[in-house]
Amino acid sequence: MLIVVKFGGTSVGDGPRIRKAAEMIGWLRQQGHQIVVVTSAMSKVTDKLVSLAEKATPEHGGEETWLADSLPLVRKLERDHLEAAEQALYNGQLEGVRNLLKDEIHGLERVLKGSQLLGEMPRMSYDFLVSEGERLCVPILTACLRELGLSAVGLGGDEAGILTDNNFGCARADEERTRQGVRESLLPLLEKGVIPVVAGFYGRSLKGRPAILGRGGSDYSATLIGSALDCDQIWIMTDVDGIHTADPRLLSEAHTVGEISYEVAAEMALLGAKVLHGKCAAPAARRDIPVRIANTFHPERRGTYLSHQSRPGVTALTSVRQAGLILATSREGVSEQFAVRIVEEKRRKNIDVMLRTSGLNGATLMYLVDQLNLNRFLKVLHRLKDPQMKLSIRRDVAVVGVVGEKLEEIPGLMTTIHRCLDEAHAQPLLFVQGASPHSIVMAFPDQEDLLRRVLVGLHRELGLSLQGVGGGTRNLGCDQNSKS
User: Fold this and answer.
1) Could you tell me if 226 and 358 lie in one domain?
2) pTM higher than 0.85 for the full model?
3) Do 84 and 186 belong together in one domain?
4) Which residues pair with 238 in a beta bridge?
5) Handedness of CA 383, 386, 387, 389 (dihedral sign)
6) Nearest one of 133, 103, 148, 163 to 8, comparing CA atoms
7) Angle between helix 175-191 and helix 217-229 axes, rounded to 10 deg
8) Which domain, by its residues, includes 203?
9) Positive or negative torsion for Cα 37, 43, 49, 55
């Protein structure tokens, strides 16, 4: 079988974990499988790079101060990866990895110094900078595989053939061109028995420069590659056992869902489930490729499988905090032209909006937007609105989604949800039924006790606490849920 295996940031969070990831790939090769590896950056590295990039503007203390503050952070980044390499590698591969890491760091420094001269961080430079974490991780993981006696080669996401538009900051892949590019880049390697180790999160734009796929985009990289290669399975390896029925940090009763449809998984991602990138399900769904979300540290556990299914029922609850509730209001009524322009602009910039609805006889448009997309979306609204339109925003909002298959066919569902809210003394700021066939969406003041009461009641009354746990062990011979 051909399996695309993606490792998340915690799975490659330090040297010993990178070594463990390599050993897992070695075990899969011993089972006779062909493997393509996609890796994220080491945990927290991308956050540090984003913070660095966002400070590269005159309003953050001036150009000279910013560069002087940045270079020690770059040195720390280099030391952390050198330390990880020393922990992961036991013999002759270390010196070559040191040289590759130093080359990447020098490239990062050139981008920072160029941005200082310009007085700003260009969008193309931003994407190069924040995707550096993946490029730093690739040589370490590749060298680990070689130490285990496996033939492996490291590639950037652009070199692997992922091709995107020019929407730097949140690019959209061109799946047709990517299919051709990935097959040309990776199939010859696989035919020779080589394991490609690909930097996730970014591809090559039409301008020939790295363009990131949005936060969490390494999942998207994996399903794009898997779809292009018509692989048998895609594994998303993370630090949890799969998709849960609710956020286990807020609800101890939450448990792993054994199987979920591609569409519901995508809806959950849009409504705040962080275990999966929102766009990653679609390429796999189009090729009917099973996607397994599983725990790197307990790979014997079954995890969650994404597939085509359509049984009516509530699958899970999603929750996201620090979201924004935006109201665009006009006495004359919000024009259809304005609404269409907003849709076109957010599609062009790949801005994800959790919910859009209207009220007050068309005089108001309402949007729920998570913290990551909020400021970008507000810039679009301010630019497109007319002088008579007023924008108001509430930032302290928690969003809860009831997600599942064919919710409209479940008898008494709405009655049960409203009873739970009454028992939790929870008055929604917004309650929308039917915006999607897969979800019912509510917004509340962002108060942890209130959110916890809502989740506990819904989880119990909607039967999620009674379902069989889907996170048990299974035979990882890879013969189940496979296309072969």
Assistant:
1) no
2) yes
3) yes
4) 295
5) negative
6) 133
7) 70
8) 2-239
9) positive
Residue 437 belongs to domain with CATH number = 3.30.2130.10
- Residue 339: HSE in the Cβ half-sphere, 13 Å Cα cutoff: 16
pLDDT in tens, 254-280: 999 999 999 999 899 888 777 787 788
**Longest pairwise C-alpha distance within the chain:** 72
At 451, list the tokens: 């959110």
Mean pLDDT is lowest, of 219-228, 300-309, 418-427, for: 300-309
Residues 231 and 324 in one domain: no
Q: Which residues contact 122 (CB under 8 A, 6 or more apart)?
A: 115
Residues 94 and 232 in one domain: yes
Tens of pLDDT along 411-421? 999 999 999 99
Which 3-state string (H, E, C) describes 68-95? HHHHHHHHHHHHHHHHHHHHHCCCCCHH
Q: 155 lies in a domain?
A: yes
Residue from 102, 194, 196 nearest 157 by CA: 196
**What is the C-alpha separation between 237 and 229, in angstroms, rounded?**
19
Domain end call among 184, 206, 239: 239
Q: How many domains, in total, are found in the chain?
A: 2
Q: How far apart are CA 209 and CA 166, in angstroms?
A: 9
What letter does residue 301 receive in the DSSP assignment?
A: B
Whether residues 162 and 13 share a domain: the answer is yes
Q: Which of 147-151, 332-336, 465-469 has the highest mean pLDDT?
A: 147-151
Is residue 159 situated within a structural domain? Answer: yes
Tokens of 448: 């942890």
Domain assignment present for 255: no
Integer Cα distance of 255 and 244 in angstroms:
5
Distance CA 417, CA 437 (A): 16
Distance CA 206, CA 165 (A): 6
* 228 and 374 assigned to the same domain: no
The residue among 211, 239, 267 that closes a domain is: 239
Q: Is residue 439 part of a domain?
A: yes
Backbone φ and ψ of 369, nearest 5° = -135, 135
- Note the pLDDT tens digit of each residue in 46-102: 989 988 887 765 444 445 567 777 888 899 999 999 999 999 998 778 999 999 999
Say yes or no: 16 and 163 in one domain: yes
CB 126 within 8 A of CB 134: no
Q: Are 298 and 238 in contact (CB under 8 A)?
A: no
pLDDT tens digits for 188-247? Answer: 999 999 999 999 999 999 999 999 998 778 999 999 999 999 999 999 999 999 999 999
